[in-house]
Amino acid sequence: MEKPLESALVWFRRDLRTDDNAALYHALKSARRVWCVFVLDRDILDPLRERGLTADRRVEFIVDSLRELDDALQALTPPADDPTQPGGTGGLVVRHAVAREEIPRLASALHVQAVYASHDDDPAALERDAKVRGALANAGIAFHTSKDHVVFERREVLTGAGSAYSVFTPYKNAWLSKLEPFYLKAYPVARYTDALAPWPDDLRDASHARPDWDSLLATIGFRKTNLHELKLPVGMSGARSLLDDFLHRIDEYGHARDFPAVKGPSYLSVHLRFGTVSVRELVHLAFDRMQSGSRGAGTWLSELIWRDFYHQVLHHHPHVENAPFKPEYAAIRWEHGKHADALFAAWREGRTGYPLVDAAMAQINQTGYMHNRLRMVAASFLVKDLGIDWRRGEAYFADHLIDYDLAANNGGWQWAASTGCDAQPYFRIFNPVSQSRKFDPQGKFIRRYLPQLAPLPDAWVHAPWTAPPSELAACKLRLGHDYPMPVVQHEEARERTLARFAVVKSPSKGVGR
What we know:
five-stranded parallel beta sheet, DNA Cyclobutane Dipyrimidine Photolyase, subunit A, domain 3
């Protein structure tokens, strides 16, 4: 069949893979020649550098994953003189530039008729795409975007009244009712890779040289992290190895996922974030295993549906990026001033005196990852024990989580703060000691990240301040020196929180933040 376009450009963003890639598929099927680009967007990277976040695991993960994507695209590109043979001189064009300016410029330089990309519904991304669309239109170039990052998006799952869901369970039921094999069918990219084109001559000169992958991170102003010491596999191959490993454990996921010292999660969150694995493939696997009786797979599928849920919340209610989903919660007065700043510093540095919270913060600070159960515990502690505005914690996670995703991060924080969609009730306040005893009963996770507490017996490791002086002396542990005393008393903090949130029921008693 004759293709309608002479040439097209694929703009990779959060879909760093060649298989089952919607944008790549549509471009290859529509154009006789296709080039591929990724822009290390200065609109995103420059603010990180300006805030001193030059050792960012996400940036290193992206660069390493791009290297593998480039290799894969090169292997799929036919040589110019023999389209039947694999292994051409194509690959990925990488730019360090302002994406909203570089994409129209590159598209014009290549004389393409269309640019293809996958949807990105973050508010800043939508604004960027609107500017790109306008600039491309001025140049007579089409801009086609398509769903790839979720199974159902935007207005695909709505209530009977045509509105967005704000409660997860009915959303999940509607989501499952809509699910059909069509929505999980992989895009057959491999059928059309003969359209991948070698670079034009003007992209081979010195000013457009291929990136030196070994020095690219430094070239864009970032430093290496401990990413490889953590043995987090990157790229498509990394996602595949994690998935293969998880499928041997998936039946136990429903129980194991709550215990941070246990290898329970899939650890695929960063790969979902950057699209090195297809969400359609993961849902297909989870659904089939659930249908075969695996309760663990059913629980994992629910987590994948939560991900879709939070993305549709952000799409329909973009105000949640900076404000509570429930407007009445804007009346809450959070702690502020020097005392609040000191409490926030103790939280982010793992000095609260509550071992499970401090171990969780040590985990994120040392690895860029935090176990999902601990994300809830740490968030609840900041908001409901320390009385700190949830947005401060959300911003800290946004800077430090390697799997940071605006929709999920915002949804999780608003859930913990009781301000969001289908959130926990404000009077449900996690007790950090009870959570510790329940989900890290032997203190294995605590001891891993707080080695100074390792000598304590299990009975005291969850709340060292309750240990008899003789036990502390035997362990050579001096509270207030080797490990801090609690910055707050949980029961007292709980009463303050209940009083703080009373404004939600009585709006006239308080305004502002």
